[in-house]
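BUG: 3D viewer hangs when loading the predicted structure for this chain

Environment: internal workstation, default settings.
Expected: structure renders.
Actual: progress bar stalls at 90%.

Input used:
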Amino acid sequence: YKAQNLETSLKYLCLSFAIILNFAIFPLLVFAGQPDVGDPMLVLASPFGVGADQIVQAANGAFIGPFQSTYSSIGFSADVNFFEKLHQNGAWLVLDAKVLTQFCGF
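Structure tokens produced before the viewer hung:
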């Protein structure tokens, strides 16, 4: 009985930690400001349109990280208009991803 309670408590602890971490990191990304040219950018796409990977490719960007998701991707480009091109190609939100890439180790 005690082992089952411990297991349940650990599950809730992990869930609580994930929620707290989410609320701690997301505001840092949102308030980081517009990314500088050449910096990594987190691209968030609509679930009803083209994927984030296609948006980064259409804006002549390159990917960072071990994978791309349908709705989000981390990309970069030396093009001074990359930020605007991402929005023109359908990005809902483009955030500075320097903090995220450092946190994730790539």
